[in-house]
Amino acid sequence: MSKKTIIVSNRLPVTVNKSSEDGSLSFHPSSGGLATGLSTTYKQGGNLWIGWPGTYDHDDQEKVHIEKELKKDNMAPVYLTKEDVNKFYEGYSNKTLWPLFHYFTEYATYEKELWDSYIHVNELFLKAILEHAEPEDTIWVHDYQLLLLPGMLREALPNATIGFFQHIPFPSYEIFRLLPWREETLEGVLGADLIGFHTYDDMRHFLSSVNRLLGYDSSLGLVKVKNRLVSVDAFPMGIDYDKFEKAADSSKTKQKVIAYGDLLSKNKSILSIDRLDYSKGIKHRLLGFDKFLSKYPEYQGEVSLILLVVPSRDKVDQYQHLKEEIDTLVGKINGKYSRMNWSPIHYFYRSFSFDGLSALYKASDVGLVTPLRDGMNLVCKEFVASKTDQQGVLILSEMAGAAKELSEAILINPNDENQIVEALYKALTMPEDEQRSRMKEMQKKVRRYNVHRWVEIFMNQLDNIKEKQMAMNSRLLPKKSQERMLEKYEAASKRIIFLDYDGTLKGFAADPQSVSPDQELKEIMASLTADPKNRVVIISGRDKETLENWFADFKVDIIAEHGIWLRRGDQDFEMIDNLNSDWKSKISRMLDRYVDRTPGSFVEEKAFSIAWHYRKADADFGDLRANELVGNLNYLVSNMNLQVMHGNKVVEVKSQDVNKGKAAVKFLADDKYDFVFAAGDDVTDEDTFLAMPKKSYTIKVGIGASAARYNLKTVADVRQLLTTFGNIK
Question: Of 137, 240, 277, 500, which one is the catalytic site residue?
Fold first, then answer.
């Protein structure tokens, strides 16, 4: 069966309605931006869109009918109960995630019962997907209602291509960490191969939370998640530009524009369109308009605000209260300024048809789009696309994702009512040539980055990250290569095995001294060193005293401090070259300053090297300080024959003439070996890999480019391989 693409969202692009009179079912398509953008994707071939159809409590016969009708348009339902909708959608999604992600923390509730329902419904979506998905399908999950689903899918379908896109903002770490189930949420999202947001800010906030809460590092938007590569990027969503452009010039729209003109008595008009929500800044907008009419009384009787508020969640307390406040403000302003032949505000609390919206966009002189917080906001783009004569001015909140693109709009802070006042005055007095110039530039952007382009770019990037993953996986030690390695190991009469410690034999920990060999590792070392054919060399950046203490019970050779100290068997340590440490005091002073400036960091001093550890420091702050320190150290040691190494949460300085590879060569020269093996995990081990003979088996632990022949994913994989070695006699 050929691979297919499955779109998954909380709601299907159609709504199923059940008649209260005769119980008949009707199907009404959605005209939303997502439905439009993905229409060419899910309607092709065997592709599919899975989601909730908008109703509940159907009997088996109704479900058969719904599934039959939806199948005609490549859709499949997820059935939810009324309780599911109340607790999952109205509850956790919109009483916890929505206010938290929009920075309205005072509205957020954290109830375990709602969280349990959220998990349950994500599992229902998983079950519905698994009824249709093949192991290697592409699955694109959408928005904050399904944050756990990518992780669930990854566990069920390890080889699937999984994308996730969040259509609302992602909050800063300081806000996100308020969520009691923050780690589980991040792990859920990271099940995807590609994670998309509208803006770079959202992407940055997400990566910061991932680093601080889960400890996963990222570089250029790539996150290593348990040795799987995940891409995180910004994809500003667009609209169907051609649809709005054509509608603006249609005969239906022109007729409505004339009718609206008669209604407004040729006054200037300001258009405000929003769903009822506290994040949209409707109250601030009304207060700003009130101040505008007061400060510029010459516009009384000359300009009207068309306020269109689309009903939404009006059963929720905050939304009911907001509706009451809006009603009160509209009444107050109209009562304060109205004349017999003029009303300052034309207020509509309902939805408009597409033709009606198109006419409002076309007829209005100013678009007033001032959310307090918004992922993208497509209303402003629809307004721009509808201005085919390029006349009109857009006032846009800096807090909307679209502000990153539409810099030619009048950008304001929506919390500042005075900015709204002055922006309105500037818009209403703007010369036509300036209006045309600004609108022309915005239209270029909105036309180019339309919703279809958005889909194309996302899917291409999803393909790219899968190719990178495949390239990484191609370096993983294949079963046949491992079998050949074991055959050569068994046939060999003299073997030498170089083993890095941290990140290779033992995982990392916040305290470098807390990772002494555990029982399993001791058993592995005992087995390897008991074989007289084996010479085992521990090759580490740690100090010689620690390594000598940890491996005192085993017949091992030791290379310490990245190659400075060598010990053969039970002989004393010897220095690889005549080195001095006169430079350490100068370096130490700088590192001490960074300890003072970076809470949680500390200095580890060795005989001929010195390291600054920051694993216990705040993740982002530690990385910032480390990069700054590396720059300063490189400048300081430029004429000192020293090397600065930036490892895993550590910055270390040592002699440039010393490295693990140079030390390893000395051990290789001691005898002729017919089996050579080396394993390591970071940049310091690359010198070891490069120093090995051509036919050696070299292993990098973790994904990523390396001079090693093969990769193994984890410390556990290395231990398993070494255990297999030890069992061969």
Answer: 500
